[in-house]
Amino acid sequence: MCYLFFCLYIAKGFTFVSSFYQQIIPGSATIPTEFSNTYQLKLRETINSKLFQTNPIKEKQQTKAPHLLSKGLKFSRNLAKKRPGLFSLIATREQNFKRKQLLNGQCQRHGVRRPPFHYLMLVNHQHKMVFCYIPKVGCTFFKRLMLILKGKYQNGSSPYDIAPTKIHTLRMNTFSTRPRKNAAVLKAYKKVVFVRDPYSRLFSGYLDKIFLPQQNFKTLCTYIIKTFRKSVVKNSSIICPVDVTFEEFLRYAIFKSEESKKNDHFDMMHDLCGTCNIKYDIIGKLDTFVPDLNLMFEEIGEGHRMSAKNMLTERVGDDLTVVVDHAFHNKNNTCVDFSQILRRTWRRAQIRGFVSMDLDFPFTNNQTLFVTKQEFLDTIKDASLVSKNDKSLKVIKNEAMSYAYSTVPMDVLDQLEVLLKDDCLQFGYDTRPKHVFEANQRTWNFNYFNV
């Protein structure tokens, strides 16, 4: 009896399969005994056509898709109007993630170089943020910004509302002297650092600390000349070291990097902020200042109140005000002729891309003796406004930097590459950029530092 039922089951199954083949392959009455390549191909094509034929129900559902799509686009447009920087913010987060990955990879390869907690850290407890500031990477701006975020300066909402001198008088929260307390803060708070191209940072250091005379100008430049200028006897007296070259400055920076007592303005960024000791949440760059700063504002809950783009519009006027203040403050504090100080202030504005190279210094040597600070400031700001549409402004700084590096012997550049290698690798910059290492192959008809 069981055997009979088994046979009937097999027969029924055969009939089902046979009918299936009749449906999908017309003219096929039975299952073929042999599957030729041609038959298998036909079978596969027929099955595919059956599987992917139009389904009336699905077709009805698909008619709604354009309507849903238009709703989605409308939602996206409305969202973009309410939060115009949202999509840019998403891209910035992705870029920041890649930067952190790169940094972590480099640190795993090369290890930790310095113990933690010896860094230039500013702590903001209100926003639970730790910021490592680096000289020549918007240092003054970020210190003023931290004062705004701290609520210590109530008379304005922009960092530029705070005079740069205030950052030395208003107390700022820094790291504790107790390592355990610092470790707890680092674990709980957002950690932020901003960096820039290492070769550009050194050039900026030369421009602001050597080319533009400062209060400690004579002491620093006398040391550089006596130590690194071959034609000068070390014990000889130098009345006014006004002509320190970019090469001599770089030799000084390389030399200081090997000493235990370093100069923060020219020390390496990864050393200053311990980037292999501390896992930073945000790694911003001056190259992408606006989106990176906006990301920081979002992360600390200030995205609705603060805009990096608005702050950037005030940058040029603030920079010119600061350097003119320095120039007149140092009028009688340096050995450099005041006419030379003002000429260098003007040329620096040109190299920074604020004033067109077509606009010559507007005062005679005699006029510089009587010009007031406000008159000079108004003149240089007017020149900046007139130069606003000059397309060459964007390339002047890079050209001036290339010219400076073209004056440096290759053996010094090779030493510099070794010095800057970790900074370049950790932050994604070229270790041997062409505008630095091939600059001496160009013909230069203009000396940017001859004023």
From TrEMBL:
Keyword Membrane: yes
Cell compartments where the protein resides: Golgi apparatus membrane
GO MF, any single term: sulfotransferase activity
Class of enzymatic activity (EC top level): transferase
Signal sequence, renumbered to the chain: 1-19
Keywords from the UniProt entry: Carbohydrate metabolism, Glycoprotein, Golgi apparatus, Membrane, Signal, Signal-anchor, Transferase, Transmembrane, Transmembrane helix
InterPro entries to which the protein is assigned, alphabetical: Carb_sulfotrans_8-10, Sulfotransferase
Gene Ontology cellular component list: Golgi membrane
GO biological process: carbohydrate biosynthetic process
Membrane topology: Single-pass type II membrane protein
Entry's EC annotation: 2.8.2.-
Main location (coarse class): Golgi
Domain of life: Eukaryota
Keyword Transmembrane attached: yes
Family to which the UniProt record says this protein belongs: Belongs to the sulfotransferase 2 family.
Protein name (record): Carbohydrate sulfotransferase
Name of the gene: LOC115228097
